[in-house]
Every structure is written in structure tokens, then in C-alpha cells.
User: Fold Mitochondrial phosphate carrier protein from Naumovozyma dairenensis.
Amino acid sequence: MSKSDRKIQMFTKEYYAACTLGGIIACGPTHSSVTPLDLVKCRLQVNSKLYKSNIDGALKIIKNEGISKLFTGVGATLIGYSLQGAGKYGGYELFKRFYSTTLVKNEEMAYKYRTSIYLMASASAEFFADIMLCPFEAIKVKQQTTMPPFCNNVVEGMKKMYAAEGIKGFYKGITPLWCRQIPYTMCKFTSFERIVEAIYARLPTKKNDMSALQQISVSFVGGYLAGILCAVVSHPADVMVSKINNERKFGETMAIASKRIYKNIGFIGLWNGLTVRIFMIGTLTSFQWLIYDSFKAYIGLPTTGH
Assistant:
């Protein structure tokens, strides 16, 4: 698609607003759709003996709590990850452009150091995105890992958490969330950019000569491969986020809580639920890139990646 055909000019306020909206559409619904997998994963992270397997966990939840309880935490997930998607995708595009034009002298240098730019841009975007996500992640984890659930909906959860711990209760997991999400997003965006670049380099047709559907297909494949890497890189921190949000004692420092929890679960415990997370994150990441780049193509913007 030529520049003259685009409805939105690149690197304008409208462009970043469109990317932000694309991030909301890509992240909120996809994370919400895998709530049953996330529910079983979080419970196994907190207590590895609770279920024999992921299927066993889902069946026991249906039997003991009802099929609707498979979506425990879906409200907080939808709100939290919609906000995070806005900051992550919109912020990534913004910071990528910022670092490409301020830290290097020209486009040639920007291309040479593109991996570093991808890493810095994704880390910067995720830092701010997590500030928006953290309160809802705290409610979601608390709701999913307590039986009966800590709350029935987001509003009730916010009221109860604020009454018990104040504003600090919403952000007691921010440090492990950053430790989980920033490496995850750095891996997600950087590996995606480089994987997609490698795919295009090996195809007989140049990207600009490919149809939107062909480009989106490349994004889907690149997204799934990137998602597998993301799941492995960020899983130990994901376990700690679940454990800390559920088990951190009031007034306990992050360092003391982390040390106590690690002593109880050990190194092996940091990998509880990895298999389901690889499946979940791989699927999530691929569909997020599929949706995000489909949205960009629909409004006349180029898909992500060289």
C-alpha cells in the first residue's frame, strides 16, 4: 500500500492514537478469552498439589464451583489488560520512534542498532503500562487464588482491597510485575521484530509487494514463535507475582516476602504451570499480533516489522 493511500499519516498524534486503540483491541479480549487457563495456572502456582493436571483442574472447578467459575477474574482481566495493551502497543510505537530519532544520527544507524532500540522502546512502554495494569492484576490474582473467591466483581474487589490495605494493596505486586512483564515485553517485541524480519528475508516476495493477508499471516507465525520465548523468560516472575499477591503479609517488605516464598517453593517451584503458560502465551501473543496488525492494515497503516 502506498503512502498516498493511507488514511492516517505515520508518526502523527492520530497514528499513535490508532496504535493505542489497536493495543486495547488486541490485548483486552485475548487475555479475557483464556481466563480459564489462567485460573488453573494461577491456582497451581500457589498450590501445585491442588490439581493433578490442567484438565483435572478445569473439571474440578466445573464440578465443585460451576462452569461459570472458570471465568473467575475475567472482569479484572479485561479492564487491566485493555489498559496495559494501550500503554504497551501505543507506547512501543512512540518510544521506538523517539529512540530512533534522538539516540542515533540517521536511518542507517537506526537500522544498525535496531535491536537495542526495540529493547529500550518495549521496556519503556511496559514500565508505564504495568502501572495501569497492576491494580487489576492484584484483584484478579486475589480473586482467582482464594476459595471462595475474594470478590465477585471488580468493583467489590477494589472496595475490599482498599478497605483492607489502602492504595498500597493495589501496588504491592508492582515490583515482581515489572520483573515479569518488562523482560516478557522486551522479548515479545524484539523477538517478534527480528523473527518477522527473518521470515520476510527468506520469502521470494518483498513485504511491500505482499497483500495485507500475507503480511498478517507472517505476523501470526512470528507472534507464536515470539510467544514461546516470552513464556519461558517471564515464567519465574509470573509465579512470584501470583504467590506475592496471594501470600504477602501486611507490612512485609518485598525482599522478605520473596525470600520466604522462595524458601518454601524452591527453584523447581518457580516453574509450576510452565506448560500451560507456554500454550497460553504462545496463543495469546500470536493472536495479539494478528489482531493488532489486522487493525493497522484495516485503517491503512503498514503492518509491524521490516
Q: What stands out?
A: Residues 212-247 form the longest helix (36 residues). The chain has one domain: 3-298.
